[in-house]
Amino acid sequence: MTSxxxxxxxxxxxxxxxxxxxxxxxxQGNELKxxxxxxxxxxxxxxxxxxxxxxxxAEQREKKKTVPLTQ
Length: 71
Prior knowledge:
- By secondary structure, this protein is mainly alpha-helical.
- The chain has one helix spanning 4-64.
- The chain is rod-shaped and about 105 Å long.
């Protein structure tokens, strides 16, 4: 049979592994928190560039539009 000491040792080991896992998840969470603001900033810059390009394209289209003088 399994002794009480063996059971307690197994429980301590399991708890220690859980603590390690929680710590690792917390560290990974912190890394993600630091990573995502940079991604959000990059996305905002790209969106800004896209809007600028769309504005330029719209201006070029307006310049190209000509109204025929006769029908």
